[in-house]
Fold this sequence. Notes:
- 35% of the residues lie in helices and 16% in strands.
- It has 11 helices and 12 strands.
- Strands 3-2-1-4-5-6 form a 6-stranded parallel beta sheet, with helices on both faces. It has a 6-stranded parallel beta sheet with strand order 9-8-7-10-11-12, with helices on both faces.
Amino acid sequence: xxxxxxxxxxxxxxxxxxxxxxxxxxxxxxxxxxxxxxxxxxxxxxxxxxxxxxxxxxxxxxxxxxxxxxxxxxxxxxxxxxxxxxxxxxxxxxxxxxxxxxxxxxxxxxxxxxxxxxxxxxxxxxxxxxxxxxxxxxxxxxxxxxxxxxxxxxxxxxxxxxxxxxxxxxxxxxxxxxxxxxxxxxxxxxxxxxxxxxxxxxxxxxxxxxxxxxxxxxxxxxxxxxxxxxxxxxxxxxxxxxxxxxxxxxxxxxxxxxxxxxxxxxxxxxxxxxxxxxxxxxxxxxxxxxxxxxxxxxxxxxxxxxxxxxxxxxxxxxxxxxxxxxxxxxxxxxxxxxxxxxxxxxxxxxxxxxxxxxxxxxxxxxxxxxxxxxxxxxxxxxxxxxx
Length: 387
């Protein structure tokens, strides 16, 4: 192609996209859009469809200035109407674009509109494709060859193998912002959404068992405040005489960099199949190794024994032959203790391996290059089909 590719990147109206965004999909969108503007500018013209107050380095199109969820009368159920309205606006301008790239969960909002355009649609899969409704829903749109799905982990492809997949593109970060620290610190670290599937209650349990100073930085969700109070705050308060567990709420992501740099390890005892864990690559970029259950995408992100340790969830749920042979809580405890027991030089070697792993596989430059390649491949196939 001789001209620049005109790309429309569609995002939810619910959250402002910017450097202080705290939700995973919108964090990805911010990194991607600004990465496309910086590293793909010789190939692309990018327009972002998003809330009007989003902070992105490209032209914006919106239907509402403030994020929909910032409005008093719009809630977690009704904000989807505004996302659909934004999609409608984007498709009404389809003559301006060569390709649409959407970031709405796993494509549920965009697919019903896909038949109304011949332009290629790229859907980055941000959620789990093993949801019970997914196979039924996607079967409704199996005759749309111009719709292409980008898995963010190979694990996602396991459940819906018949989708029109591009290659897997793992998330990337601006590694320059996550300065490497070769020494680390003394504490266990956890950060993420304060929801049951992220395993925060297990982190509290391990802090108690191992008596290791632990720092947690939860992003609170209103619907889980009761769970958080019962399973985290109350249990933390009972540990005052045993071990210190420090909690700080809704901390800006930029402020977490120091915490990543100065921690011994990042503990991630997931209870669900994580499609991709941005916090893992942020931690490793700073040099801090990860201990996690072998769920979802984890074995694609963590190198067992090199950038941390992977643990099978239970004796009845064996995902791989990892270095740590114990499973469940016992396996996590053994992995944590092994990192604490490492001689200084061996631990420094692991921290260096963490940084090198991110620089090789999980940078924004690497991610953008792959997306630009996917755009070009899709458009080249479209051109050939017309010949």
